[in-house]
What does this fold into?
Amino acid sequence: MLQLAPLIDIPFDRRHCCWFCGEPSDQQWSYLKETYTPHPSLTVPCCKECLKLAKQHKLTSIWDCKMAVKDELMRIYEKHLAIGVNWTKQELEESEFEDKVFGGFKKSGWMMYEIARDRVNYSGWPLSLNGVVIDDYGYDASFSFDGVNYRSVSQAIAFYAKQFTLDKRFLEDVIAIVGKDRFGFAIRIAQINIAAVPELKKQVLNELREEHQD
Ligand SMILES: [Zn+2]
It folds into this structure.
């Protein structure tokens, strides 16, 4: 496995766990530091699904990235999570679903709900490299811009991308480079390049990265 940054310390009882969701991990993902990233480059163990999601939502820190992975898991497993909202375990067991039609749902429905719930709720473990704790400075996921408070920076990105029909992925990539403190600037970049072809967007990102290097 290609490891581009040091692997975080992994507690013995979590040695097979995805750092994002707690599912069995068979992958690793390296978060490479940009100028504004408040922590060193590092590698975390993860499952295949979280690896894919994390790559798409790097944002400005591993903690923001984790929030975005959770948001995506909630979106992907919305139907599974709804089972727990609409039913209690007992109701589901006692329901009069015809066994032939809904039997499978009765048996697996609650389990699917529990798995999705536990993945979304999983809090990982504090990050450290070679025994040195990486301070998250009491990381607070909430983010405010233009007088509005958002649950997370990824929620704010999703909102703006929808309002202005912007390329969400591109906006995220810009924010990963310039930092969430320059959210307004990132939105302008996304607006200016709204009709740009992928190659041009890539070029814009490269130029931004050059400008923002130490
Ligand atoms: Zn995972």
In short: Residues 18, 20-21, 23, 46-47, 49-50 surround zinc ion (CB under 6 Å). The CA atoms of residues 170 and 190 lie 7 Å apart. The mean pLDDT is 88.
